[in-house]
Amino acid sequence: MRSIEEMKAENDEHYRKAKKAKAQPYIAKCNGDENVFKMPHLGCYLPKGWELSGTYFVDGSGWGSEGEPALTAKQFLAKVRKGYGYALRDAGQFQVNVNEFKRGVAK
């Protein structure tokens, strides 16, 4: 089992790499886009031109079932919206947090 400190260090490293690379979220091409599972791990990095619109707690093991706190893959896909961006915020041993982004308003 991984410790909280190990998971935090890993997620902080993803943030630093994403920020340095100016990484972007995966943009869903249609509602329920299954390719969203190829999303990048950006940590808590907020890409330029995007704003956070939601966060989802999702089962990452494939063993979760409906009715549990973490969404199943099927339940998560039902929430994926065309044109929105998706990226892993952090990952635990069995669940992940996914950030959902929408294009920000130009200022």
What would the keywords be for this entry?
107 residues, alpha+beta, 2 helices, 21% helix, flat
What is the structure about, briefly put?
The protein has 107 residues and is of the alpha+beta class.
Overview of this protein structure:
The chain is an alpha+beta fold and 107 residues long. The protein has one domain (4-103). Helix content is 21%, strand content 26%. The protein has helices at residues 4-21, 73-77, and strands at 26-27, 50-59, 85-91, 95-103. It has a four-stranded antiparallel β-sheet. It is flat, with a radius of gyration of 14 Å.
Tally of helical runs:
2
Main β-sheet, in a few words? Answer: 4 strands, antiparallel
Shape: flat
Mean pLDDT: 92
How many angstroms separate the termini?
A: 45 Å
Task: Count the domains.
Answer: 1
Biggest sheet: strand arrangement: 1-3-4-2
Number of strand segments: 4
Q: Which range does the strand content fall in?
A: 25-35%
Low-confidence stretches: none
- Helix content estimate: 10-25%
In N-to-C order, the SSE pattern is HEEHEE
Radius of gyration: 14 Å
Structural class: alpha+beta
List the helices and strands and how they pair.
Blueprint (H helix, E strand, L loop, with lengths): L3 H18 L4 E2 L22 E10 L13 H5 L7 E7 L3 E9 L4
Antiparallel strand pairs: 1-3, 2-4, 3-4
